[in-house]
Design a protein that fits this description.
Layout: E1 10-13, E2 18-20, E3 33-36, E4 42-44, E5 47-48, E6 62-67, E7 72-76, H1 85-103, H2 108-111, H3 121-125, H4 129-146, E8 151-160, H5 171-177, E9 182-186, E10 189-192, E11 194-203, H6 207-245, H7 251-262, H8 267-291, H9 295-299, H10 314-318, H11 322-334, H12 343-371, E12 375-376, E13 390-395, E14 398-404, E15 410-414, E16 417-424, H13 433-450, E17 454-460, H14 471-476, E18 492-496, H15 503-520, E19 525-528, H16 531-537, E20 546-549, E21 554-557, H17 563-568, H18 571-599, H19 603-640, E22 659-662, E23 666-670, E24 677-682, E25 688-693, H20 708-713, E26 721-723, E27 729-731
Parallel strand pairs: 16-17, 17-18
Antiparallel strand pairs: 1-2, 1-3, 4-5, 4-6, 6-7, 8-11, 9-10, 12-13, 13-14, 14-15, 15-16, 19-21, 20-21, 22-23, 23-24, 24-25, 26-27
Helix pairs in contact: 1-12, 4-6, 4-8, 4-11, 6-8, 6-11, 12-15, 18-19
The structure holds zinc ion (2 copies).
The site of one zinc ion has 8 residues, from loops.
């Protein structure tokens, strides 16, 4: 018996859902890989790893993995891919909320109730207790900085006579024996050049002053972070204000954003408070920066380290100013800022961040699907949502399947089409042009090779977080994959952040494009019908909404029918007739059989019997085929209602007045209640694509910059609007970029 050799560690590539046993150094992209472990012990960054842990960097950005048999794989994560602390914190906080949701086995209804913004925004609006303390005790800290206590230290040194202030008793005898310190001899003694004198050293570098100096440092970095956070918060409020005052955007979008916002905070009140707090904190920071020039700060060595736990000294207990410094220090320490983490803590934190990114991605998808009017079917309503679960949703007869896989990726299936969505906790907007191009082209290449489904990458960022990049690169980071004019990549890529209210709208746009594209392009819906039935049923005649094609043996629903039109086709009668035919045929057959029994052998009757059997079989076959056709047609009719549903306001259009078939495979429909139109458009190269325009008018945009579509139209658009040469607006063909 030999021992089984330990299996190598396997890494699952979440982009392609394939495994490998080695990660190339330049493929180390945060969030891309997870561990597929067998039972043996595996250490990642010196911490014991579990199944489905993410491949993550350690504190210094390095990565290594080691299994029992000593196999090692290592590399370094690019620093620029790692998001900044504030983003990380926000994802982790919302991730915590969502992981509780998963733990408590929540269903669709509970998920879509969660606001996809940083939780407890209101807690950050007002000053925290430390900040109030700093404000109230700033005077004491200032006194300490300007007039620090010092340790008096007297030493006897040889100094130039003019500098000597207090001369110790031993100076005379010392001078007598040190002629080199004489200037010249005088008649009655000597004129000294140097003399022993008491020199007073004011020693500032005492424990209490070190604490005070480091307190200034710590408070400044604390405030810097807080100010950053408040500025972000202010931007959230301003965004909201912009959305409310923007002429652009649909009424529905305003409603959605207001509803989303209303769930979390009152923006007028909030904005004023944030501005006030921000103002106060900026002033505090300004004052503290001033202390950097004071005596105390200059005299205490820059790098002296002070442990977090304060010693109780005489000065800290009794001095009227220092006692407040001690209080401030303790208050600061209690915020947990600047705390050094153990490798294990750091490991768990980063895993939490990556898992939080997955859950946040799922939350945005669920909210977006809800916005798009999808609801779980009756069985999925009660299903809990967690990694590994799958639910079925429905909208106007269209079913879709939503799957959250164990590795955290999400897929949406409609008919035989699939969209994969992967949330990566990377800050693509802060990378260099080359780096972004490199990553996107590698993703493109990989995904093209591995499967035929569509892919959407969500990265951590906001609308303007990629400002320093080239325009074409920025477009590549802001696309749902339907504008080939600027981006060379096929992959759809969008920023998401719990700091940006528009994140959900972007996902709405992406999912709308994927779903509507497939539904619209299935127009006209059709079913296969055997020619005999076509002839018997006479469906080819006189129906404005149905078109039968003898050549293809199909019937097509050109216009979603009204209920009475559906009844006109007379399926009941038809069915009755077919049933009757069967009954008749059976009767004839039985009669012949009876006669045969009576007559004994009769060649003529025997022949008739075979004809009757043949007829009976034919009737039964037709009845079966008719039932199938009726069922299929009824299903397709249900689905055709989708073409009537206004994508902006949900009103069902009137199929007689509003819906207009155009040519073989396109249509145009207008909403009588909000004037939105939606249609299938065709470019000169023959590509068909779905379009919609809220309120029926293009918004005038002075400049097309990356992200403008999201900004102006939000989720209420399909093909991207574009300006033609002559200055008028049209829709961009997603295949060739032509504007029509
Ligand atoms: Zn409408
Ligand atoms: Zn085209």
């Amino acid at each position: 018996m030999t021992n089984k050799a330990p299996k190598p560690v396997l890494f699952i590539d979440r982009l392609t859902n394939t495994t490998t046993n080695k990660i190339e150094p330049n493929d180390l992209i945060p969030g891309r890989w997870i561990l597929d472990l067998s039972e043996e012990a595996v250490f990642q960054n010196s911490v014991a790893a579990s199944l489905y842990d993410f491949v993550i960097p350690d504190l210094s950005g390095k990565w290594n993995i080691l299994n029992e048999s000593g196999d090692r794989n290592e590399g370094v994560f690019s620093k620029s891919l790692i998001p900044e602390d504030l983003e990380v914190d926000s994802i982790r906080t919302i991730g915590d909320v969502l992981s509780q949701l998963i733990d408590s086995q929540s269903t669709w209804a509970e998920w879509v109730n969660i606001v996809p913004l940083v939780p407890e925004l209101t807690e950050d609006v007002d000053l925290h207790s430390l900040e109030v303390e700093v404000r109230d005790n700033l005077g004491h800290l200032e006194m300490v900085c300007q007039n620090p206590r010092m340790h008096l230290h007297v030493e006897v040194e040889r100094v130039i006579v003019s500098k000597a202030k207090r001369v110790p008793p031993q100076a005379v005898s010392y001078l007598a024996s040190h002629t080199e310190d004489w200037d010249r001899p005088l008649i009655r003694g000597i004129m000294p050049k140097r003399i022993l004198a008491e020199v007073r050293h004011d020693q500032f570098d005492i424990y209490e002053n070190r604490v005070s100096a480091r307190l200034v440092d710590n408070l400044i970095s604390y405030l810097t972070l807080r100010i950053q956070k408040l500025r972000k918060l202010l931007k959230v409020f301003q965004d909201k204000e912009d959305y409310s005052s923007d002429i652009a955007g649909t009424y529905q979008r305003h409603q959605r954003i207001s509803a989303l916002w209303g769930e979390s905070i009152d923006e007028n009140e909030g904005k004023k408070k944030v501005e006030k707090s921000l103002h106060e904190l900026e002033w505090l920071k300004y004052k503290l920066m001033g202390f950097l020039g004071a005596v105390l700060y200059k005299e205490v060595p820059r790098r002296t380290y002070v442990p977090r736990t304060l010693k109780n000294t005489n000065i800290f207990t009794n001095d009227q100013h220092y006692s407040h410094v001690a209080e401030l220090w303790r208050e600061w320490a209690s915020t947990g800022a600047d705390k050094v983490k153990s490798p294990k803590q750091y490991y768990d934190d980063v895993q939490g961040l990556y898992k939080g990114m997955n859950a946040f991605t799922m939350l945005l998808i669920l909210r977006a699907l809800e916005t798009l009017n999808y609801t779980p079917d009756s069985t999925s309503e009660r299903k809990e949502i967690f990694p590994g679960s799958e639910i079925q949703l429905i909208n106007s007869g269209q079913f879709i399947r939503l799957q959250w896989s164990l590795n955290g990726t999400v897929s949406i299936r409609i008919n035989d089409q699939k969209l994969n969505i992967v949330g990566l906790p990377i800050a693509l907007g802060f990378c260099s042009n080359d780096q972004v191009s490199d990553i996107l082209s590698r993703f493109d290449h990989l995904l093209e090779k591995s499967n035929s489904s569509e892919n959407l990458i969500l990265y951590l960022g906001e609308n303007d977080s990629s400002k320093s990049l080239d325009v074409s690169t920025r477009y590549a980071l802001h696309t749902v994959g339907n504008d080939p004019r600027y981006s060379n990549y096929k992959i759809a890529c969008l920023p998401i952040s719990p700091w940006e209210i528009a994140s959900t709208e972007r996902i709405v746009r992406a999912l709308r494009w994927f779903l509507s594209n497939h539904i619209f392009l299935s127009y006209p819906l059709h079913v296969d019908v055997p020619n005999e039935i076509l002839e018997l049923a006479n469906v080819k005649e006189n129906l404005r909404w149905l078109l039968s094609d003898m050549e293809k043996s199909t019937v097509e629903i050109k216009i979603p029918p009204r209920e009475y039109e559906w009844d006109q086709i007379g399926f009941d009668l038809l069915h009755e007739q077919f049933v009757n035919d069967c009954v008749e045929a059976e009767k004839r057959f039985k009669e012949i059989e009876e006669n045969l029994k009576k007559a004994g052998r009769d060649r003529d009757l025997a022949k008739k019997k075979y004809v009757a059997i043949d007829e009976l079989v034919r009737c039964k076959k037709n009845l079966k085929a008719l039932k199938k056709v009726i069922n299929e047609l009824a299903r397709v009719k249900e689905r055709s209602v989708f073409f009537l549903q206004c994508p902006t306001c949900g009103t069902e259009a009137n199929s007689i007045n509003d819906f207009e078939p155009r040519g073989k495979d396109s249509f145009h429909c207008t909403c009588s209640s909000c004037s939105t139109f939606w249609s299938i458009q065709k470019c000169s190269n023959g590509h068909c694509y779905p379009t919609m325009l809220p309120s029926g008018d293009f918004f005038e945009v002075s400049e097309e910059i990356p992200g403008w579509v999201d900004r102006i139209y939000g989720g209420d658009i399909l093909a991207v609007p574009g300006k033609k040469q002559d200055g008028s607006w049209g829709f961009v063909c997603p295949d060739c970029g032509e504007i029509n």
